Amino acid sequence: MRDLTLREVAELANMSEGAFSRFFSQHTGRSFTEYLIDIRIGMVTRMLIDSNKTVAEICFEYGYNNISNFNRIFKKKKGRTPHEFREMYCKKKTIV
User: Fold this and answer.
1) Of 25, 49, 58, 90, which has the maximum CB count within 10 A?
2) What is the pTM of this model?
């Protein structure tokens, strides 16, 4: 939930930012930033399902400072907006 930078992680690994970035990409197939986005979107998805918090509350709680940017990233990753995702999941949950 807090900001985590490439610099911090590289320092923990005792590597330069560039070396860590290359190492991370080679071993995960994704950039460090893309990996963090995927982790955050996963946590946000769980919160959309398990809580009654608003999309804006969840957005800010998980480190996004701009709701329109958050909506764009979420839609790119999940194929629908957070609101649409929550509605779709709730309908499926009711049917089951």
Assistant:
1) 58
2) 0.80
User: In whole angstroms, what is the distance from residue 11 CA to residue 89 CA?
Assistant: 40
> 1 lies in a domain?
no
Question: What are the distances in angstroms from CA 57 to CA 9, 53, 74, 81, 84?
Answer: 27, 6, 15, 15, 16
Domain of residue 24, residue span: 6-95
How many structural domains is the chain composed of? Answer: 1
Cα(91)–Cα(96) distance, integer angstroms: 9
The CATH number covering residue 59 comes to 1.10.10.60
- Does a structural domain hold residue 73? yes
Q: Tell me if 88 sits within 8 A of 48, measured CB to CB.
A: no
